[in-house]
């Protein structure tokens, strides 16, 4: 695994209270299976989100582990009023009950700031003033930047505003392979320089970037396996790099197949894919929705009606993993 630090970088020094929180999270990971569902409150859950939630819930229950709920609400302008309430209500309506309190990333801003400060003091970040226009060709999921060409890597360490604009903060990666244990998606490795690049950890507008917040929270929450859609596989190397910079190994990952429409296109909020409201208009109740989600994975015959609890009681871990290992999202 590559380490996100140069040979002359001083050691990373985190405050004792944060070291203890990270150590506590890693101890939780060692004690047993812990996964999470982490939607953003940017709109209602669509069928693809709901199916991923069901997969994660089933896996956790079959492993007698914990299934946690985190709301990734850092990007305030994109959050929609009432979206979080809708997400919680949809999960409860389907019987997908989570363990413990809801975790909100907005409550961890102080932790992220402390991590950023420590990384900066250790010389592992550098300021970047590249414009959006310059980097428009390399946009990636969640607003991150893919394979940054390194324009500012060796520039002067000027952190203050210039021409009224602050820089973004990038993590300086050393050459090498970033690796993780992958169960469903492509092999778990990415080349740090060729496939990941120096990722942004703090945006120029001061907002903590997706990769930093996600990596830190996986550690704090003691997540042993991240179950999420295969579209997020390209983001993994950047998050593994952040964990490596903090001296921690990553959890394992299961990037599960996406649900696709009749033309083979993935369902997404952006395209207004049908959520629970549409399924209810079609007359489906919770057993009908669970049946439709499960049938899309070949776990039950089409037209089945059953609760989430009925489904888990009639399913084996091997049966679930066998369906996921086939690796193709079922078309609507």
TrEMBL record:
Which protein are we looking at?
A: Glutamyl-Q tRNA(Asp) synthetase
Q: Organism's domain of life?
A: Bacteria
Q: What protein family is recorded?
A: Belongs to the class-I aminoacyl-tRNA synthetase family. GluQ subfamily.
| EC number assigned by the record | 6.1.1.-
Per the annotation, the residue ranges of the short sequence motif 'KMSKS' region are 266-270
Q: Which parts of the sequence form the motif 'HIGH' region?
A: 39-49
Keywords tagged on the record: Aminoacyl-tRNA synthetase, ATP-binding, Ligase, Metal-binding, Nucleotide-binding, Protein biosynthesis, Zinc
Q: How is the cofactor bound?
A: Binds 1 zinc ion per subunit.
